[in-house]
Design goal:
The chain has about 160 residues and is an alpha/beta fold. Helix content is about 45%, strand content about 15%. It has a single domain, classed as 3-Layer(aba) Sandwich (Rossmann fold), CATH 3.40.50. The radius of gyration is 16 Å and the shape is globular.
Length: about 160
């Protein structure tokens, strides 16, 4: 059974395309923190009592909706959400969660508005036929930044 403080912290992962699931497990095991992967399809997960998965239907935004619901119903549990989805990050921030991108970049109340605006501008440009490059390839440095950011977020929440 995890310590009482650790039982009050939970990591939720928007898991379908998340490149840092293994890193999340390592941090969770180190701090005895529960991890839930939410996905549209069945994913392999380690056989460990701190790790589970929620498989949702394949409806549009079904995984996002489930993650937001869990955040809203979290009560006394502090939630860390891992997602690259800016609109999901906004929903989770509004529900009181800590939100990290898989690159380790935190989404905050101050950064989410500009991120949403940039997303909208890029969507408009793509809709207009502009050829835009996508995000930079996921790098080893991103993985390292994520590990540090997730560990720091967990420690901060455990100290509350």
């Amino acid at each position: 059974m995890p310590p009482l403080a650790a039982a009050r912290v939970r990591i939720l992962i928007d898991a379908d395309a998340c490149p840092v699931k293994d890193e999340s497990y390592k941090v969770a095991w180190r701090h005895d923190v529960h991890v839930t992967l939410v996905a549209n399809s069945h994913l392999r997960i380690p056989a460990h009592p701190l790790i589970d998965r929620v498989v949702v239907g394949d409806g549009f935004d079904a995984a996002d909706d489930r993650i937001a619901e869990i955040c809203e119903a979290s009560g006394a549990t502090a939630v860390i959400v891992v997602t690259a989805d800016i609109l999901l990050a906004d929903r989770c921030l509004k529900a009181g969660a800590t939100v990290l991108a898989p690159t380790g970049k935190p989404f905050t109340a101050a950064s989410i508005g500009p991120a949403i605006a940039t997303r909208a501008i890029m969507a408009d440009l793509r809709a207009g036929g502009d050829q835009l490059g996508g995000p930079a390839p996921f790098a080893r440095a991103d993985r390292s930044r994520y590990l540090q950011a997730l560990d720091a977020a967990v420690v901060k929440l455990l100290r509350r």
